[in-house]
Amino acid sequence: MGITRQTVENYLELLEKSYLIRTIPVLSASPDREIVKARKVYFLDNGIASSFGELSSGSKFENAVFNQLMHKGEVAYYQLKTGREIDFILDQSHCFEIKETATESDLKNVQSLAQNLKIDKSYVIGRHPSKIFDGFIWGGFLR
Hints:
two-stranded antiparallel ribbon, 5 helices, globular
């Protein structure tokens, strides 16, 4: 593409300081790993997010959830080399997986990953409440 990493970082910083986006860091037991891993980018306005590119409804929902969680504390994410991840970790004490249609197996997956971080509070936030179970939060309840 012909753009240096530093140029991309400068643009991201400009967009963040302009309150268009927010980036969140990876949470890791090793500070060196946190520096190496990429930050995730979220739009602070869901309307702008929808007009930029072809975002799936799941990505739009995850962006909307982020916009609610960011007001509750420090938000990070967690990802293994295999690609398995926890979408959001709030204040290093609560893990959240975001799914359009959440299942109990989604909760088990996030609980399994949360053990790596020694976090025992895990939830799945779903857009479509197909089945209610312990650990499920309907996205409409977020404020």
